[in-house]
Amino acid sequence: MTAPKQLIVNADDLGRTEGINEGVFDAHRRGIVTSASLMVNYPAAGRVPALSRDSPALGIGLHVALTGGVPALPPEQVKSLVDADGRLPARPDGLGGADPAEVLAEARAQLKRFRHVMGRDPTHFDSHHHSHRDVPAVFAAILTLAWETGLPVRCADPTMAERLRREGVPTPDNFIDEFYDEGATLADLVRILEGLPPGTTELMCHPAVVDEELRSTSSYADPRARELDALTQAAARQALQRSGIRLVSFGQL
């Protein structure tokens, strides 16, 4: 018997700017987003609990951010992760010399901050810029958090999915990251939904109301508005219904 089709539509970067907050919750209320990943090291993260109270069905996980911005720990405690100004590297390739003990300490500090901000555990773990896919020390840290909490982890590629299952960590069967940039149109979204494989799939997205803070700090800004538009179109829900897809979140794994 063919497995049913279940879909987690996860919005990354919640908490990074007020415009991202607005876009993510709008994409949940009016669209098909069921889950989000919170970046706890930005001031806008403080607004998320109030927004979440009005949208309790949106699952919220921890977007472990070891690239971009500043760490949760004092910079002197994570010297191998930061530059002379106390900032994290822009991309995962800047983490090549990171001390695994400091990576784990920072990941744990971000989980502690998530619990303080949200008053609960996250629904799952993933990472900014897929650093847990590209940097072994980051994967090891997130795997440790999963062992300690029993929570799911995003499988950013098939090899990772196999490792997570071997370790007994809950994870979706499939991961789709192609709804992005020039591939983030309504036509692309409908095509993805109509071709969804059996099992549980995570679709990554980045909806936002694009604000000046986002434009000035991210190379991926304006396409987020196009994502928001596609995710809230009736045609997206119609594609779900035609394809027999059930929307779920990580908490249902």
Please provide a written account of the structure.
The protein is α/β, with parallel strands linked by helices and 253 residues long. The chain has one domain (5-252): Glycoside hydrolase/deacetylase (TIM Barrel, Alpha-Beta Barrel). It is built from ten helices and seven strands. It has helices spanning 18-29, 48-53, 100-118, 131-134, 136-149, 158-166, 186-194, 212-217, 223-231, 234-243, and strands at 5-14, 35-38, 59-64, 125-127, 174-176, 199-205, 245-248. Strands 1, 2, 3, 4, 5, 6 and 7 form a seven-stranded parallel sheet that branches. β2 (35-38), α2 and β3 (59-64) form a beta-alpha-beta unit. The longest helix is centred in the middle third of the chain and has 19 residues, at 100-118. The mean pLDDT is 96.
Short description:
The chain has 253 residues and is an alpha/beta fold. Helices cover 39% and strands 15% of the residues.
- Could you estimate the helical fraction of the residues in percent? 25-40%
Report low-confidence residues grouped into runs of 5 or more.
Answer: none
Secondary structure: number of strands: 7
CATH architecture: Alpha-Beta Barrel
User: What is the overall number of helices?
Assistant: 10
Query: What overall form do the CA principal axes indicate?
Result: globular
Q: Termini distance?
A: 20 Å
What's the story with the biggest beta sheet? Answer: 7 strands, parallel
- The topology string of helices and strands comes to EHEHEHEHHHEHEHHHE
Please report the first level of CATH classification, the CATH class: Alpha Beta
Give the CATH H-level superfamily.
Answer: Glycoside hydrolase/deacetylase
Rg to the nearest angstrom? 17 Å
Instruction: Tally the structural domains.
Output: 1
